[in-house]
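[SOLVED] Predicted holo structure with flavin-adenine dinucleotide

Edit: marking solved, answer below. Original request kept for reference. I posted the sequence and ligand SMILES and asked for the 3D complex as structure tokens.
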Amino acid sequence: MNLPIFIAGAGPSGLTLALELARRNISFEIFDKANGPAPENESRALAFNPRSQTILKASGVTELVCQQGHTIEKIQFCWESRPIKTIAGYPSTRADLRIVSIPQGSVERALITALEKLGIQINWNSEITNFTQTSGDVTADIHKNGKSISMKGRYLIGCDGAHSIVRKQGGYQFSGTSDPQVWELADIVLNTDEFAHMMVADLFPGGANAFIPINDRFGRIIHAGIGKIDNHPMMVHASKTAWKSQFKVSYRMVRQFSRKNTFLCGDAAHIHSPVGGRGMNLGIEDAATLAFLIQQNREKEYSALRLPIANSVLKFTRTQTNQLLSKSQFNHLVKKHILPVALSISPLRNYIQKSILALDTPSPEWL
Ligand SMILES: Cc1cc2nc3c(=O)[nH]c(=O)nc-3n(C[C@H](O)[C@H](O)[C@H](O)COP(=O)(O)OP(=O)(O)OC[C@H]3O[C@@H](n4cnc5c(N)ncnc54)[C@H](O)[C@@H]3O)c2cc1C
């Protein structure tokens, strides 16, 4: 008898894995300890990049997300809040290479809609609390709607986020570093549509602010430091703060993406800075790759395929974040005089563009 695959977590990674397995008629059960998807009014991950757009096209999710999402088309650089350069056609002049800005909760709902069309239901309020393995199967203990049950499956795939139980109990190492820097973010309602499709990068010595539009008069502001978000330059255009949060950045990843009958996707396997907007997208790519490999009976290749990709994204986001925060005099000069100009010409533009669009990693084999 074919045992089902268990997916722990129904965030962007787990939902993508479920959808890509369902499209291939591979049997699975998906569990999440929460009672539903991420709220749409807390933007969390915002960028739905061209790589994810390509991956989720076949399931119809890309069309749904693009209908609801908002495009970023230009970037304005400021130095100490004064505009110094606006680059149109950012990150790309090509209409098919756009970043779609949309709250993570809306992407999750689009994935759930696609799953429901295939008759798949998610087991909400279902926490995987423990698991044991033999050479050929996994038994998971699940706390579901207040009751404890045990179920036997073929694999347990941890899409259960940064604090993954599958990673912790599966014996994976999760090495790396944590930055002491606290970042603040807020979603704000604007009283102007001047910034409708424009990202704003406000650079200053030792730090940076950013604004990312979510729709014509709504967007995310982000700032490195505590207690400064209310003085963010975009606040002069704000009529309301809809949501606020704080976070610290860590750079950690596993040394292998699979062990015995377990696999990891998304934040369970790697966490890094949000600079570049890669977090959610990388998890979507992990999950879709794993579903393809399982269909091909090539899941043993998963770890070796994903390790270098996660490693290069971690390196890129760390370098970019450190450059934004660097207090060196040389770095001030680069940020003020060189970066805005260099970004309007190749080859630096091509390098940054490729990463932001997630075109710096090999194209999925099945597309
Ligand atoms: C405030 C905030 C802002 C962010 N901003 C950005 C950003 O601007 N750009 C960006 O790229 N990324 C951002 N991120 C990160 C982004 O949200 C993650 O990279 C992305 O959600 C990873 O998706 P995932 O599916 O791998 O994990 P998650 O979205 O964390 O999903 C994990 C799921 O697993 C479930 N779960 C956990 N443990 C169990 C268990 N034992 N049993 C069952 N279910 C379980 C959880 O309930 C959750 O639904 C932000 C995150 C936060 C919290």
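OP edit: The chain has a mean pLDDT of 93. Thanks to everyone who chimed in.
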